[in-house]
What we know:
This protein is of the alpha+beta class. It contains three helices and 13 strands.
Amino acid sequence: MNLRKIAALVGGGALAVSLIGAGVGASFNATTAAYQHVSVGNMAITITPLATGEVLNDNGTITCPAILITTEAGVAPACSFRITNTGSTPASHIVISGTESGLSPAQLLGDKFFVCDAPIENATGLCSSDMTSPSPWTFNPAIGWGQYGSLGSEYLLDNSDMNTVFDVTFTITIAS
């Protein structure tokens, strides 16, 4: 074979490789998803009414006995309940909201009534607590009116407030 033929074959081979190489490529996209259920335990909460006349409702709320207002200021008899967690996940924060029933809109606006040292506004007062001790926990949220309300507010009840009957239902929210 002469040199021209060899050079032509090598040149043709190089051209073929370069043309094939120019058109060769690979590209792909991959998407994956994985789901795994991880069990870290549970909270098993029991709410127990402790005061006479309290009602544990089917939805887990506590309704305290009705309060009859006959004085300008005061605190209702104790409403008391115990919260127990027998689950494996500890509770670290509890929020208790008290929703009243029976007060008029005017009475709610006056900061005359309170739950847990907070005024009942828009029919709801809040209590909250960070849990540093193990369960069970006993709560005695104060329900009051007049000078005892709103952390010692000066709002005394007047004659139009006398003989008002209202009650408070507590909803408990627990977080770990």
